[in-house]
């Protein structure tokens, strides 16, 4: 190569230091919460080079951690040549500003919320997903604008070209106004998309389609399960928040009933409220579902805490009363003793491995049971000119018997309450099961 040394042009990962405070009030041990924060940082392309913890009764108003710890953090940042400091809890705008002054530019100080928002920004693919992430990011940014334009202080009094920009408004005021306008526009766009989604959801309801939603902690294997059940190719990878945008696929049960299954964004402990708000139209798929499959990584030692975290979010979005089935995934990673312990603790749960297919047939049987619960058995005579209705009967109902007569198709079926309402004008019996 002569005197020229080759060098890599690949981007270098940012070196991150994680900081956590133990107040004794979190259900998650600090070490486990920081381990999850580390996985989030790695998902976002950073390299974790150090951690720092402190035990406090309450966060310090000025810098979240104590003054002594702050100085210790500055020394650690210098010693490890860190690029970014990530706090496990949400920082106030003033705390973030004070900490950044302490560690000095170009080093950054962010919190768990900002990290998750950045991951979401990288992973959102659909227009709705990108709009939702942008809304959450701007809502997070708005109160943190103060001080970002401190280099412009005093320029407005100098006169000259540009001195009258914004009719006397400061750059901070201009930015706030622009962000508020953008937030208002984003909300309007998302409302339009939400109405469109509502129309599609109502159409599925009117058609009598049974709707199943997959929910769970991030990385529980929901996308892999959807792919196995429906033969689709939804992106599935062993990383946090691999799926953000909801994906709906159709599935035919053995009894002949057609259902839909929707994969949704994974949940996480300390999920930012701005994200729950921004993703409400996506999460509406969960609220509208007939059945929720709560998918859990059975091999995760924090499985019980993750179930609680998911149920907390379901309560926040008004879906806690929905019919649900607990599904333990990745059961092939457990030994016999662990499997027995899980069966004892959660006797009604379904145990599967979405990757290998183990137990999936049993899960489909459970879904069919749930879908047929409350079904009405009826006999109908459908005129031949009602071809669409005949098709709906074969797709949405369990056909017990059928024969073709002079007046149309005579069929005895088990139908959902919604479908039975559609078939009511064509019933030739009045006995309900």
The description of the largest β-sheet is: 6 strands, mixed
Number of strands: 13
Instruction: Identify the overall geometry.
Output: elongated
Order of helices and strands: EHEHEHEHHHEHEEHHEHEHEHEHEEH
The overall pLDDT average reads 84
Oligomer designation: single chain
What proportion of the residues is helical, as a percent range? Answer: 40-55%
Q: Give unreliable regions as ranges.
A: 149-168
Question: What is the rounded Rg?
Answer: 27 Å
Helix/strand-derived category reads alpha/beta
End-to-end separation: 84 Å
Strand proportion, as a percent range, falls in 15-25%
Q: Tell me the strand order in the biggest sheet.
A: 6-7-5-8-9-10
Q: Determine the number of helices (DSSP H or I, runs of at least 4 residues).
A: 14
Write up this protein.
The longest helix has 36 residues, at 171-206. It is built from 14 helices and 13 strands. The chain is elongated, with a radius of gyration of 27 Å. By secondary structure, the chain is α/β, with parallel strands linked by helices. The model is unreliable at 149-168 (pLDDT under 50).
Short characterization:
The protein is an alpha/beta fold and 433 residues long. It is built from 14 helices and 13 strands.
Summary tags:
433 residues, alpha/beta, 4-stranded parallel beta sheet, elongated
How is the secondary structure organized here?
Layout: E1 15-22, H1 30-43, E2 47-55, H2 67-80, E3 84-87, H3 93-103, E4 108-111, H4 112-123, H5 127-141, H6 171-206, E5 210-216, H7 222-230, E6 247-252, E7 258-263, H8 273-278, H9 280-287, E8 291-297, H10 303-316, E9 324-329, H11 336-345, E10 350-351, H12 360-372, E11 376-382, H13 387-396, E12 398-405, E13 408-415, H14 417-423
Parallel strand pairs: 1-2, 1-3, 3-4, 5-7, 5-8, 8-9, 9-10
Antiparallel strand pairs: 6-7, 11-13, 12-13
Helix pairs in contact: 1-4, 4-5, 5-6
